[in-house]
Amino acid sequence: MDFIGYRSDALGAAVDLVNAVTAAKDEPQASDALRTILVEHGFLARRAPASVEPALRAWARRLRTVFDAKDVREAAIAVNALLADVRVEPHLSDHDGEPWHLHYAPPEADVVDRLRSTTAFALAMLVSEYGIDRHGCCAAEGCNRVFADTSRNAARRYCSSACANRAAVAAHRARAKEKAKQS
């Protein structure tokens, strides 16, 4: 599902940024993990300088507020706060041999500002179209990662299939244990 018609995966970038910053303490995190996300989601063809890491980390913490929202009003307030802090200036661009496509930041914006405006706009589209039904925090016990559901059935509640599988196994074992107690 394409939420904003942009050539990068802005919604995926928002999720990956938040998860990179809020990863569990026992998960190893590469020193350039946030800059790698820029490349992986189509914001850059090559790595950004290390100097962008603090800005990306701060923005990821801001994005988290949308995923943590308990209701649509709280999510809208969080999105509006993001949008108030970015410069959104939509325009068509055909840079680097790409076909014409929409950019949300002004042409002179650096990569961090482009990421900020695009991810804020992606979350605004997500919340305006689906409320809080398609994003949130992972339902797995002890996981603090986030997800955005782009599936057709909108049934996702876990950040990954690994968390979904662990939760299913734990639920199965709990049911089996309860059944054994009753026998």
From TrEMBL:
<dbReference type="Pfam" id="PF07336">
    <property type="entry name" value="ABATE"/>
</dbReference>
<dbReference type="InterPro" id="IPR023286">
    <property type="entry name" value="ABATE_dom_sf"/>
</dbReference>
<feature type="domain" description="Zinc finger CGNR">
    <location>
        <begin position="135"/>
        <end position="175"/>
    </location>
</feature>
<dbReference type="InterPro" id="IPR010852">
    <property type="entry name" value="ABATE"/>
</dbReference>
<protein>
    <submittedName>
        <fullName>Conserved protein containing a Zn-ribbon-like motif, possibly RNA-binding</fullName>
    </submittedName>
</protein>
<dbReference type="Pfam" id="PF11706">
    <property type="entry name" value="zf-CGNR"/>
</dbReference>
<dbReference type="InterPro" id="IPR021005">
    <property type="entry name" value="Znf_CGNR"/>
</dbReference>
